[in-house]
Here is the input.
Amino acid sequence: MTAARGTTSTKTSSKTRAKATADVSSAKTAAATTAPQTVPAKAAASTGAAAARQPKPLGHVTFVGVGPGDPSLLTLAGRDVLANADAVVVEGPEHDAFLTYCKPGVEIVDGSGAEGSRALKIAARARLVVKTAKTAANVVRLLTGDPFTFSSGAEEAAACRKAGIGFNVVPGVSEVSGVPTYAGIPLTVKGEREVTVLDLAEAKLDFAKLHPKQTLVLLNATDVLKDATAALIEAGFDAGTPVAATVGGTTTAQASVIATLGTIVADLRAAKLTGEAVIVVGTVVEQREALSWFETKPLFGWRILVPRTKDQAGPLMDRLRRYGAMPEEVPTISVEPPRNPQQMDKAIRGLVEGRYEWVAFTSVNAVKAVREKFDEYGLDARAFSGLKIAAVGDKTAEAIAAWGIRPDLTPTGEQSAAGLVEDWPPFDELLDPINRVFLPRADIATETLVAGLTDLGWEVDDVTAYRTVRAAPPPAPTREAIKSGKFDAVVFTSSSTVRNLVGIAGKPHASTVIAVIGPATLKTAEEHGLRVDAMADSPSAEELAEALARFGANRRDTMVEAGEVVTRPSERRSGSRRKS
Here is the structure.
């Protein structure tokens, strides 16, 4: 097969070189036909001098509001602008999530170093934006919230205009409206249509001019809240006026304290909340009991450990965040090539030469390993022509489909090796010209599929396509959090993640909720002395997150019905974790 492949490559290369030569010749002919006549030397010198005197064109700045904290609040317009940016000016790590939309090689300019008063910080950042625009063609300036609402966007845009630099503005969700909305508090309701926003970091305000019946939104009020509430009461506001203070707004760290104008200072101190709060004063706060939607998510505020292969944690992490959780990925497995690649090389040659009737993929990693070998050999999906393809489940089938191939067989029942065997046809000498199956898989995979196919009359080439290697132990604080119950839940996506997590970090605390992706993982967890609280209906990241969310919702409902304060699992300690 190697010699044949080399011959084909040589013919293709000859044709390619001939075509390339023809294309180059055509290009030269076209250039000669369309090229302007030669400019006299004197004229050329004059033109060059004029060009040298031309100033370098200034760049363009787009001010983009990214919202108050939740990265998903970035607008489509903001995402599109970031995709075309040559340079992005950020204010700190809170903007890192938005850089994933940028093209490779974009320049990241840190604008967090300004010091001094607010006016000095704004001036320093304005100078930085202008300076960046003089060296980069397309500059994006990211601002938390909305650029023109209680932000420095207006001042920085004015500096650009003064420097002769053009700019655009992409609005963002302001914390003024975004944070109360995430807290379940509408700023306007029927009969309450007047809203006043006060930035208490500005010059001293005259509270006497405020109407006691209007809704107030207070920004930068935490450090001066005692004086502000006293001034409002003195101005005629009732001490019993409802007040809501929300920190970490729109993020999974959000927390709200509901009190009155007379008690909010003491209640905030008792809650031990840190960070700047958005404070709403008025009867609209009473709507929260019925309209709270974010902080009542089934996994809201749960700290969830995701022990998983590092490059496969994304979908599960995203789904857990959708339910309000704070997932933390800890690598427990590293996927590496087999120590001896000759077995895979031989199998790929056999596949091309027609040695197999079936190829059975039992994981996304197996698909990836075969695809990498194909790339190494210069092959593509056409090499599967005439072969039948089996996939152990939906995710594996999706990975195969991304290759342009539709599997011939997937389990109709349980998505596992056992389920695949249940639906696999027995070997028939009259119908099947070849009785051999290519099975690329992990080095530690179970023998269920091999044994089942052998019983059905097939010969199986069981080939190690990749190795799963135990990762290094996580940092000491993470290990301590696992053992002491500071994680609310752990989600296990395979038996190997159970074994490896226990091996590198120890068993989760008795109070920690355990969720698993399927029966095999459940069995392994029980063998390690863990009681499983939730199991996915089918082996996928989405179903695993859904199963844990159902458990969290049922747990919350039970507490509410019992009149208990809703707490997270890490806030309650049981004596021991019993086996189920």
